[in-house]
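Lab notebook, design round three. We kept the backbone fixed and only want residue identities now. Task for the bench partner: fill in a sequence for the structure below.
Input structure tokens:
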């Protein structure tokens, strides 16, 4: 399967919202609806596993359902299904993901990075 077909398959995965959708997906006082407003953004999600073990995952939010989120890893094309009820903290990047990619490309290719803003934060 080529990259274009994979991308289309991922885009069709999104939950369709309409007037019959449950309120947790449409009213942003609920976590799923709030997170749906941030699809496509880079985020670090911290999960509470057990009673005192925090585990984090970083990626691009690609989908949100009533009880789950899907994160696409930055370093690979792996998608992680995450239980929404074990989430404790979410850090959302304000920078567009494509800015982070272009910064990485300049650094990797050893091109001129003197004019790159040093305030880039990676989560």
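Proposed sequence:
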């Amino acid at each position: 399967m080529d990259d274009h077909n994979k991308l289309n398959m991922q885009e069709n995965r999104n939950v369709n919202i309409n007037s019959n959708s449950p309120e947790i997906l449409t009213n942003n006082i609920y976590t799923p609806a709030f997170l749906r407003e941030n699809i496509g953004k880079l985020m670090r999600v911290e999960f509470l596993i057990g009673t005192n073990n925090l585990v984090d995952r970083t990626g691009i939010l690609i989908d949100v359902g009533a009880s789950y989120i899907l994160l696409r890893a930055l370093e690979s094309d792996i998608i992680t299904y995450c239980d929404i009820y074990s989430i404790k903290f979410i850090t959302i990047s304000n920078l567009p993901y494509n800015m982070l990619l272009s910064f990485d490309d300049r650094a990797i290719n050893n091109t001129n990075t003197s004019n790159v803003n040093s305030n880039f934060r990676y989560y």
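Keep this in mind before ordering anything: The beta strands are 42-49, 53-64, 68-72, 79-83, 87-92.
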